[in-house]
Amino acid sequence: MKNILVPTDFSECAQIATEFALEIAKKANAEIHFLHLIMTPVDWVNLPKEQEDNFHETKKEIGYAKGELAKLTRRAEKMGLKSKHFLVFDKGREEIDLHTKHHKHDFIVMGSNGEKGYKGVLGSNTQRLVRKSNVPVLVIKQKPENFEIKNILFASTFNKDAIQSFKQIVDFAKLMKAQIHLLNVNTPANFKETGEAIANMEAFLKPYPNNTYQTNIINALTEERGINKFSHENEIDVIVLATHGKSGLKKLLSPSITENVINESDLPVITLHL
């Protein structure tokens, strides 16, 4: 982990994401970038300077955003981190994807509005990144009691498509000095006998022979219920889900399950899109 991106709208949930990202960056000695998207009524980049006063509220909003971004950068630098900030106009949801590729971010931390769901510019971008991002996205809704990560839950159907991406979680766990708990959720619609489920997890772990993991199976009516129940009963700090937009439940957890877990759980959730 070398370069972390934090999209922000300066809301309370975005501030919580910033706190979490700073702690991760400090442990990883990673560079951290702050990005704010601002929607303007005109093409602000090409707007003549003398016409800016015709859009007083927009100009005021831009000034506020620049000030807040500068504060975030200074705070990161005071922690000994390399930091940059970016204010992007008009280009909307796809801009985060482009920014991530251009600046080679390898981890994204975003806030979510909790019960409000995916609302506003930040919310809609959180939803998009959960579905489409090629790098891990950590979504956080509530401020944890502390920022220490001891137990990471990786919930999956343990298809071979997820094996390579799992290395990112192994590296993240080493960085945090955390234990990884593997979880297979048995549901009426997607049921495996115990022997088959254990064999799948053991095969999944073969490329990682030098690590110790806890393997678990839980029966539940839905994947979401099983994940949340296990998390609450086992002091999980972060949930990790691997999704694939086209695979559905037969191979990996679907984007809809991931979004439901984010909405229903109070814990931070990391998504890996395959």
From TrEMBL:
Residues 1-141, 149-271 form the UspA domain. It comes from the Bacteria. Coiled coil: none annotated. Belongs to the universal stress protein A family. PANTHER family: STRESS RESPONSE PROTEIN NHAX (PTHR46268), UNIVERSAL STRESS PROTEIN UP12 (PTHR46268:SF6). This is Universal stress protein. The lineage of its organism: Bacteria, Pseudomonadati, Bacteroidota, Flavobacteriia, Flavobacteriales.
